[in-house]
Amino acid sequence: MSNEYDVVVIGGGPAGYPCAIRASQLGFKTACIDAWLNKDNTPAFGGTCLNAGCIPSKALLESSELYYRMRHEAAAHGIGSGTLTLDLAKMQQRKQSVSRQLTGGIKTLFAANKVTGLHGTGRLLGEGRVEFKAHDGATEVLKARHIVVATGSEPVNLKIAPFDGERIVDSWGALDFTEVPETLGIIGAGVIGVELGSVWSRLGARTVILEALPNFLPMVDAQIAREALRHLTKQGLDIRLGAKVLSAKNNGKDVTVEYELNGERSSERFEKLIVAVGRRPYTKGAGLEQIGVQLDERGFVKVDAHYRTNVPGVYAIGDVIGGAMLAHKGIEEGVALAEQLAGHHTQVNYNAVPSVVYTAPEIGWVGLSEEQARAKGHEVKTGLGPFAANGRAKAMEQAAGSIKVIADAKTDRILGVHMVGPYVSELLAEAVLALEFAATCEDIALTMHGHPTLSENFHEAVLLVDGRAVHAVNKPKK
């Protein structure tokens, strides 16, 4: 029957759609249900990532960086830019075009891999049944041997600063401004807050980021995080650490934010306020609790090492199960689950998940920071390679930042690599491979890197671990 499947995936974001594609490739009759509607009510696969997160934000980050570099760096290259203009409407149009091209690509991939793509909502009914409700209201009950929940996450809505879609917005709303705000407030100096702050600050907004925690990006090696904060502050971002927001009120023309910093209460007005304090699992309407699927105290779906819930035949992947809320982590989980359903022995290495903040300079890391390594009992040795000594970075006029390698002093094994600098999002892949293959510093030291390239700086940082660098000053041995 047409409504009977081997696999039904609920959610067509970065975890769900790769799971559906791989399952179909492995011979399973597969359907993927996705509820996403863009603001013009057009359905699209790809979830938050492709429609309102990773991809549109990177498009705006790229456009705004080009604008910023033309204003501040072109002259150093001998380029006279004349009168520089900003067409925000065209910039936004390009952002949307990039996003739509990629979401349309998923439809093409579904067709090529014989996945049935369904626009609407999915609700678990139990006993291998899923109620599919299309956006036009038509309903159908699907039957499946395996049901995969990949419903993703949504922005946390603070009671003290509730979203109103006008002055107080979430990350999606912050990507759709039609004018550059004169003043912009952001609650949260995490990945999303810093990226969005960079976009609008580059385009001319006076931007203040209020972060309750005392340290900047605490998941990043402290030495690299401090350097990143220095560069971002130099660019004009006003990042206030230890600032606890008490309230936010939409006054019609602006937003008044009250906060406490260093024991003193202060208030400030902003034309727009972005709330970027994290994301929470989205399971509304999925019927999980009704059929007995267990959730933890924060609402994440509980799964075992093979993504199985406590209900036979029901699985969960991606943001909805917690851990790093990253698209690439969801992709790997989706593929791993599909292959496990086919009897393959596949697993995800959660100790080698790369993370990136797409500011300029970029911030990237994988594995342990120096602080984490010491806390785990490792005897640590480190190497710090500054981009200031890198020929390619100099030629690019982007020599800010460093690469730090953290290794075990006894085994020489690389434990983590944390970076801030030009295009470190691309350099990070080599560090991920190093962790996956349990590489030692010696392994990388014996690997030839092209010259002149940014990747040489990773090689240099590894050499610096043992005082072997020839293009940088080695730290004195103890």
UniProtKB/TrEMBL annotation:
Catalyses: N(6)-[(R)-dihydrolipoyl]-L-lysyl-[protein] + NAD(+) = N(6)-[(R)-lipoyl]-L-lysyl-[protein] + NADH + H(+)
- Which residues are named in the active-site annotation? 451
Q: Which GO terms describe its molecular function?
A: dihydrolipoyl dehydrogenase (NADH) activity; flavin adenine dinucleotide binding
Any one Gene Ontology BP term:
2-oxoglutarate metabolic process
The Gene Ontology CC terms held by the record are: cytoplasm
Intracellular or extracellular location(s):
Cytoplasm
Positions with a binding annotation for FAD: 58, 122, 151-153, 319, 325-328
Could you tell me what the cofactor note in this record states?
Binds 1 FAD per subunit.
Membrane-crossing ranges are: none
**InterPro entries (alphabetical):** Class-I_Pyr_Nuc-Dis_Oxidored, FAD/NAD-bd_sf, FAD/NAD-binding_dom, FAD/NAD-linked_Rdtase_dimer_sf, Lipoamide_DH, Pyr_nuc-diS_OxRdtase, Pyr_nucl-diS_OxRdtase_dimer, Pyr_OxRdtase_I_AS
- Where is the FAD/NAD(P)-binding domain positioned along the sequence? 5-334
Disulfide bonds listed in the record: 49-54
What does the record give as cofactor? FAD
Concerning SUPFAM superfamilies, the annotation shows: FAD/NAD(P)-binding domain, FAD/NAD-linked reductases, dimerisation (C-terminal) domain
> Please, which domain of life does this record's source organism belong to?
Bacteria
The family line of this record is: Belongs to the class-I pyridine nucleotide-disulfide oxidoreductase family.
Q: NCBIfam families, alphabetically?
A: lipoamide_DH
- What this protein is called in its record is Dihydrolipoyl dehydrogenase
Q: Which organism is it from?
A: Fontimonas thermophila
